[in-house]
Design goal:
This is NAD kinase. One of its GO terms (cellular component) is cytoplasm. There is one protein chain. It is built from five helices and 15 strands. With 279 residues, it is an alpha+beta fold. It folds into two domains: 109 residues, Probable inorganic polyphosphate/atp-NAD kinase, domain 1 (Rossmann fold), CATH 3.40.50.10330; 140 residues, Probable inorganic polyphosphate/atp-NAD kinase, domain 2 (Tumour Suppressor Smad4). Strands 5, 6, 7, 8, 9, 10, 11, 12, 13, 14 and 15 form an eleven-stranded antiparallel β-sheet that branches.
Length: 279
């Protein structure tokens, strides 16, 4: 068996134990296990929760190697497997009973000072003021001005990210087969000067969302990509749109998005897990 597997785990004791157990079983099955991610790696096994998954893809700049997750965290939306399913996963993987789900990402370009900075996320981009201050933005989509925004911030999510921060602030859950962006306001204020929508806007993926800050009121701006925060000064323009980077998630025939949504948000166990065969 020529396939090589890279195991990435967080530092929690449970995750480290599962990683050691998983490595032993993979080697016993005739698979190679490496401690470095290279171009020759065939699969990444990510052990932890969704935070560990996000840490992985940002640390390795959105790798093209297929990823499957073993959930030792809470919700585990990206982490499909339970530790009790490792044997079943290996059997299915050896018999090529898996397929890949291609997940789109979102890219943010920031014109700050004399530089242009880039950030990429799989869940969302969030634009906020400094230290929780109200932010003021002129919002354009394509060539059309949509609104003058005043509030805590604006979140732009991918379909994959619609179940994350977006959902917690009242955004809609979006089927991952759709190619779109969702712009959700965070505590918007409507005044005589600033008028904005109070619900999410669903936007096509083939155009850019442009945010022009009022630099007189917002000298510093925070941009969050999947929870990773950077602060910028003298921001003249921000654009957000689909990125060319993709993430490839390993799925099995029993996977169905809306079943998972129901299990995670409506009928899951107290620890966020759902016991289900891979099928």
């Amino acid at each position: 068996m020529d396939r090589t597997i890279f195991i990435y785990a967080n530092q929690a004791e449970t995750s480290r134990k599962i990683a050691a157990e998983c490595k032993e079983k993979l080697l016993h099955a005739g698979l190679r296990v490496t401690d470095q991610l290279t171009r020759d790696t065939d699969l990444i096994i990510c052990i932890g929760g969704d935070g560990t998954f996000l840490e992985l893809i940002h640390a390795y700049d959105f790798p093209q190697t297929p990823i499957i997750g073993i959930n030792t965290g809470h919700l585990g939306f990206f982490q499909d497997l339970l530790p009790t399913q490792i044997d079943q996963f290996i059997e299915y993987y050896l018999h090529h009973l898996d397929h890949l789900q291609v997940v789109s990402t979102v890219e943010c370009s920031i014109w700050a000072g004399h530089e242009i900075y880039k950030m990429t996320g799989i869940n969302e981009m969030v634009v906020k003021g400094e230290l929780g201050a109200i932010i003021h933005l002129n919002v354009f989509f394509g060539d059309a001005m949509i609104e003058r925004f005043s509030g805590d911030g604006i979140l732009v999510s991918t379909p994959a990210g619609s179940t994350a921060y977006n959902y917690s602030i009242g955004g809609s859950i979006v089927d991952p087969h759709l190619e779109l962006l969702q712009m959700t306001p965070i505590a918007p204020m409507n005044t005589t000067v600033y008028r904005s929508f109070t619900s999410s806007l669903i936007l096509p993926s083939n155009q850019l969302l442009t945010l022009i800050p009022d630099m007189r009121q917002d000298p510093y701006i925070n941009i969050q990509s999947d929870g990773f925060i950077r602060e910028f000064n003298d921001v003249k323009k921000i654009t957000i749109g689909y990125s060319t980077k993709k993430i490839h998630l390993v799925k099995f025939s029993g996977y169905e998005f809306w079943t998972k949504v129901k299990e995670k948000f409506l009928i899951g166990n107290a620890d966020g897990s759902t016991e289900q065969d891979l099928k």
